[in-house]
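YM 10:42: Putative ATP-dependent endonuclease of the OLD family sequence, as discussed on the call
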Amino acid sequence: MYLETLSIKKFRSINDITLEFNKGVNIIIGENNAGKSAIIDALRICLSIGKQWRDIGIRNDEDFYIDTTVISDELEPIEFDLTFKIEDAQDRFYFNSMVFQDADNPDNQNIQIHFKYFLDTNEKGNKVLRWSIWGGELEGQPVKPEEAQQIYYSYLAPLRNAEQELKPYARENKVTSLFKEITKYLKNGEGEPEEVNLDMAKKTELAQKLENVINDEDWTGLIKTGENSINEHLEKSDINSKTSKINLRFLEYKYENIVKGVLTRKSVYSDELIGEELFKQKYFDISQNGLGENNLILASAVLGDIENRRKEKIEHYYALLIEEPEAHLHPHKQNTFFNYLNHLQDFGAQIFITSHSPTITAKSKLDNLIILQKTPNNIVSFRVKNSGLNTKNKSYLRKFLDVTKSQLFFANGAILVEGISEALLLPVFAKVVNDSFDIDKNGIEVVNINGVAFEPFAKLFNSDEPSKRLHSRCSILTDDDKGQISPKHFIDVEQEITKVEAKKIHHILKGEEIIDSTNRIVNFNEEDELNLGDYQDKEVFVKQVLHERFNKISDRAEIATELSAGNLKVELASNTFEYELMVADSFNCWLIRLIYRKMHPQTVFCSSTASIETKAHDLLSKLNSNKDKSALAENLVYFLDNSSQIREKFKVPNYIERALNWVILGV
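YM 10:58: structure's back
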């Protein structure tokens, strides 16, 4: 069985949330204070139901949710509802008191545990905490202790003191826990290693062997000397009639006590260097390791403990809870450790991990991700698994979600752009539009998708169902590429225009400057006669094609506009990004031409008396490479960043301003 859903109500910052989980690995991500720790703590409270000693619980009114929109002293009950999916008959056997069966559909069964905590007032007028826990559907149905004890979990805290938890005799020593439950071991001897059953009799025998070694004359005399030294001073410092003497001995020789003293350390020399001279080996104490190294050792000990308990069937359900596995690990070690955790789907324990590391997010399987986001008065969740993304979309995202792009999952909003020029300029444009529109302070992520494959990213935001999309808003900025035309548009069977002839017609129109170097129709008047040379008899048809394409946006732009839905809006630039920048205002046009001339001093522009549109088309024809576009953007950023006068005069295109208003203000 595995935990299928967890419902949390009125707990800390969470008003009401229901989370769905995978059987294997679940990665819970989100910005700071998005409720990740609250969810892990809710799991700890619930899964420790069968423990004699619990390290967490609802202990005061600070754990109760406070509605910040209503002034009230009333605190509504905290509720946790856990539903486990039944996978075989053993699940029902071990958790019989928790089984729910649908009266209308007897085959619909699951295992449920419910918790309710509320504040009451006693006869003295003091607040006291009350609670009830039940299994199945009906409140009041008790959970049997022996069934509750079939649930086991381990928890690795954020910024944990791994060194302390690995030290001998520490109360929560994970290595000790592992050795306590081992029931078999391999004994080396001549030939193949022999498997030995480690039952209670064998444990007693092993402990007795150690006691026999220690109880020789030398050790007995040494202990007695220390004991006499202490008792001599005790007798002199106490009242005569009191019995003050103490007895000293080594730790009681029981297996459980001996394994508490197991020392965790690392070899200094490699096995190859030492060979058979094992007595020459030296060791590093765990205190000499870095925090990250000890965290990995601790996590490995916990995994070993769970794996052993599962094999020995000590309990029936196992979970591993890890908060911020990235703590103290550099990105490469994060990758290695997390890749290993990602492959524990069949480990036999359900794994819950919280993180705010883009490195870990980028390495996660998308279907394992649960994204938490803050709303004004609640926490909401989104699973990529439940989104409108198909297999192809997920494959694309998995390939391109690097550390930078994956930050959109932690952002308050996102703006998707085609290339580096837009990505460079958007942050400074935001400040030009409004001083309060600082991209970083508003938590907005500008994502350069390096092309035009918007759909996989868009489907994270554009579902009409809130549960199937990110809560944050998103804008897409793209070019409408109006008037784009290529040779393929002239191919026509009836006109007997082949691919070769279509290329020639396209080339002629470029020569006549009807089509520019960017394959855009820029100088077309239906009343004017076309000079088509050998293809003059095709003039009517060619004019028809030019007319159809002249004001038509590209197929790619049409596809982009169809993505607008839910929390996503699409804003199109007339023609291109650079064209829009120039035609937005005459000052923009002057500044951009000035910058380009500084980049290319030998540039010859069209007449200064030409229209602003003509000047824009003229510059576009010169921006013949992405390198030119990014260099132009870098220079424009410099001018806008370093001159308040330029910022005041510069006009951000309307379509960009609309995109910023949507993502930041929601208007």
